[in-house]
Amino acid sequence: MICIYCQKEFEPSKYRRTKQRACGDPVCQRKRQRDNLDSWQGRNPLYYRIKRMDPVWRAKARQRAKRWRTSHRDRIQAYRAATMDQYRVYMREYMRRYRATIREKAAPSLPKE
Ligand SMILES: [Zn+2]
After folding, report:
1. Dihedral (C-alpha) 91, 94, 100, 104: value to the nearest 10 degrees?
2. 17-73 residue pLDDT tens
3. Residue 82: which residues within 8 A CB-CB, separation 6 or more?
4. Where are the domains of the chain?
């Protein structure tokens, strides 16, 4: 059997003898999982849009994301260090908008006609 990702010969699992198309190499397995996920999302384009309308699911997703952020601070710091220039541009724009909303709250401009 030839792996569809690395084109190397491999021995398929005895349980997946006819179906297995990727070898056991972690790199190929990650590619296979990514492709499977992409094809699933292509077949179920509304799945997360419908989920996001559920307040219970949204609260859980927020908790899950927060838990990931607090337990993977090193990954976030590494990513931020690698993309520091973009981050500076983004933060400059973000703070400009933030200060504009503060000013708007302190002294609301006249409503538009
Ligand atoms: Zn492979």
Report:
1. -130
2. 889 999 999 999 999 999 999 999 999 999 999 999 999 999 999 999 999 999 999
3. none
4. 1-43, 48-104
Pick from 34, 38, 43, 6: which is nearest to 21 by CA? 6
CA of 35 to the centre of ligand 1 (A): 14
Q: Please, which residues bridge with residue 53 across strands?
A: none
* β-bridge mates for residue 2, sequence order: 9
Q: How far is the CA of 26 from the centre of ligand 1 (A)?
A: 8
The Cβ-side half-sphere exposure at 78, using a 13 Å CA radius, reads 5
The environment of the single-atom ion ligand 1, i.e. residues with CB closer than 5 A, is: 3, 5-6, 23, 25, 28
The single residue listed with the structure tokens 């010969």 is 9
Does residue 113 have a pLDDT over 70? no
C-alpha to C-alpha distance for 23 and 16, rounded to whole angstroms: 11
Please report the sign of the dihedral spanned by the C-alpha atoms of residue 7, residue 8, residue 10, residue 13: negative
